[in-house]
Fold:
Amino acid sequence: MALWGQTVKLPGEVMMTIKQHYNEVMPIEIRHFLAPWLEDHILPTMQANVQMDYDPQHYEQLASNFLSDFILELETRAPDFTGTNVTVQLCFTEMAKKLRQRFQHDPTQLFSHLTRCLQMEWNFVNGCAMPYQNAEIVEVNEKLHTLTTMVAANEEENRQLKLDYERFSLEYHDLIKTTTYVKTITNPQELEQNKLQLGEQQKRLNDFLNAIQNRQLTLIGKIKEVIDQMQHAHELIMVKQLRLWKANQGLAGNGEPLINNLDTIQQWCETLADNLWNTKTQIQILSKTRQTINVPIDPNLPDLLEPSKKEIINLLVKLVTASFVIEKQPPQVMKTNTRFTATVRLLVGPKLNIQMNSPSVRVSIVSESQAQHVQQSNQYSEALASGEILNNSGTLEYQQATNQVSVSFRNMQLKKIKRAEKKGTESVMDEKFALLFQSKFQIGSGELVITAWALSLPVVVIVHGNQEPQSWATITWDNAFADPTRIPFQVPDKVPWPRLATALNTKFKAATGRGLTDQNMQFLCEKAFRHGSPGALNQNEMYISWAQFCKEPLPDRTYTFWEWFYAVMKLTREHLRNPWQDGLIIGFIHKKQAEDMLMKCPIGTFLLRFSDSELGGVTIAWVGEGSDQQPQIFMLQPFLAKDFSIHSLPDHIADLPQLVTLHLDVPKERAFGKYFTAFPSQATNGYVRRRLVTQVPDVPMGSYPNTPSHSMSIQSPDHTRDTPSISSSYGQPGIALGNELGMMLDEFELGMFPTNYQNQQN
Structure:
């Protein structure tokens, strides 16, 4: 079912939240009427995790194309709505104009907002962000509602108290006048009568004053109770929920869905800021009332108010500093002299009007030790920066469309990096840095100036693409196992295997579109622990170390477990994505298991497994007839990424008549046919069309249905193998390939090779 079809079935309160977010840029009715179009144009990039952070130019081009196409779709569809739907027609036409005016200079703003809206829908539908089913989030909402009610009641009590003070002040001054008058009376009888009245007036006024002072003390107690409740609300919002959001950012770096509830957290922060500021104002009014009204006051009152005022200010500072967050993280593997982006946001900005003072934000790169110093001392000097970043300053601005105070750094570039001395086997790919964002905020009329900073997720700086695999090992381990309360950037040296397996599965699924099976996980466990007996390990009881993960080479290999896994993931993402998603590639299977499986199958059955001997290689194993006419297992020399740049895996499979049935008992045409490349038979421009095919020459083979007789060449590049390895070559259909021709096919690009070469040789 389409996403919108599932969204409209959500509870009414959830739909209200979704509607509010859409209404910031467009009526939700447009989401309804253009549901298929919007999902077709946004969901693919959302599911592929396309973000401005990783490829700004590509993202901006996507956003620009989206805006143009969206406006065109609105204008094209508008005439379809007539009669009773004429209001929809007007809405479409007006919306097209507004979008053009509002977003033509920054289409990424619209595209990002609608992507967040669809991500929110997806989270709600899939249960990733059901606030109304989450007890903690319900607790936050109830806490803030209670808090707002208490603050409003205190505000009303404060107002009434001020009126009573003013009334008391008037009566007190009347009493003074009466006392003065009584002193002038000389008639004893009249004097006695007025003294009685004066005594009653004094008693009544004293009772009134005591009542006011008791109410005042009660109000101060209620203010202290409110402050305690605010402390608790701050813990729920900033320590629990915001910390969870930040932790999810790290997990999202490994491919987890990003829980997009920052707008909800902002609403909570704004409500808390409102109540804090109102309470601060109430304390000021209470103090001012005492000072301006000339009446006897309890001398202990100043001592009761001052601590509350300090607590409120401390809470405000904590709230503002904690709400300064990095909404869009910089790339965690950062190459020098390469453009990158990041976005910071102040969650309480709109409510406190902090943006009115145009606060600037500066970015610097810091080492792990410098990050620790900043966290522990809350101080930092730019003179201690570990590198130089271009375009590293910006201004926080209010974005009316999203009700956000934020700044996007779109053209930052790391020019220089200062590295620390390495210890032992450490390399530059193990060294963690972070981006430090700093700013100062003025609250009120400059009465409160707050310095705030935010540290990004760890970053590994590289200078060459070949440093990426080990760098991603560092980042993957950190994202998966970092404790939210840690000292930067400490991580455990050993973790339970199931936790690492979960991280690997998440990463592989995010990269390729399909996760790993239990059998895949078992294989990876055995490979990671260098265990050759399939099924012998109990995954739940194993701990894997950082060294086993990415430092120590696999047995008889020059590469580590992570390097092998990363190369397989990269190959699958770039060249095998569709067959992998269709479940056509077993991939993670031991050679012996593959042989045992195939020996039970008919001649011509094949499977695909990732190579043990070649980084980023996939091999085809099949059962054929040996020279003794008995079934024999053959392994084709692994294909690498460079092979697929010439000829896709499905086309290789199509070319080889030895491959008849996939191990799932599915004919290869049915399994891979939709991915076969169609070659037009007609000649163009007077040239005879030609194409490359894969062959396995020089080995006698049994007969296969509907295939000519072929020969294959057995090679054994790996001395540890008993199963023959077969090397393939490219050729033209129906032409035997000599060594010279094979070399030329490798050396020349397909489009440049002459079709009459064979005739020239003859």
